[in-house]
Write a structure and sequence with these properties.
2 copies of one chain form a homodimer. Helices cover 29% and strands 43% of the residues of chain A. Chain A contains 4 helices and 7 strands, in the order αββββαββααβ.
């Protein structure tokens, strides 16, 4: 489902997810967070009681935008459904993999220093993907 | 309503809006686009028949995230309502101001080259603002 061009963008170091979930009542609520692509999904780890987790528990519909860190005209839109895994140890293991994308070899020590963390894995399953591979207007 | 720190971030050249609107049925839909702050609002210009315009016509609730172009840990979340102005000439005048933020002195020639454009101004009125002024984990 994700083309090579989309995978390349999502895999680029220092690309961040702008994740939009739905509040009670249906209003959109967005935040900026780390991600890691796994196959055709995006994985995000956050606190189990985070607003975005509570939103997804109520309504799994999400939207994601990820822009190239050096060219915001090159970005991908993903719409789909988020799946939650409320499992502290699994979340920390995933967090090690995610953190490596952003802070490299410091990731393990950084995750170790967090200790036990009541965290959750959000897996975004894209249902619609649009890639914009543009440049600043000439 | 917008603090000086939030204004400074929104006014920074090369900051882009990740704008999330609501599709028919209520699913979130996000895109990446230019903006310009005007007082306590954000202005965006797009085609009058764009998906985000049709979404806002149906439901004005929007969410915006804007990250610092060199430090994505420094970002602002804005939630609020979008107001539409479907006025081609006014949209082109606003587009000149917006484009100047991104392409500088090339903006006027770029807008002139667009000719008549059936465009709309989206004005985001924030109702809730959260600033995250963080750094990459040490």
């Amino acid at each position: 489902m994700l083309t090579d061009a989309v995978r390349d963008l999502l895999d680029l170091p220092q690309t961040f997810t702008h994740l939009c979930t739905l509040l009670p009542g249906g209003a959109p609520q967005a935040t900026v967070i780390w991600h890691r692509r796994e196959g055709d999904t995006l994985r995000i780890v956050t606190g189990a009681s985070a607003l975005k987790v509570r939103n997804i528990q109520r309504d799994p519909r999400v939207s994601v935008t990820v822009a190239h860190p050096e060219n915001a005209y090159h970005f991908v839109q993903l719409r789909g459904r988020a799946e939650l895994l409320l499992d502290g140890p699994a979340s920390l293991a995933e967090m090690r993999l995610i953190a490596r994308r952003y802070i490299g070899e410091r990731a393990d020590a950084w995750v170790d220093a967090m200790g036990a963390w009541d965290a959750a894995i959000i897996t975004v399953h894209p249902e619609r993907v649009s890639l914009f591979a543009e440049q600043e207007p000439a």
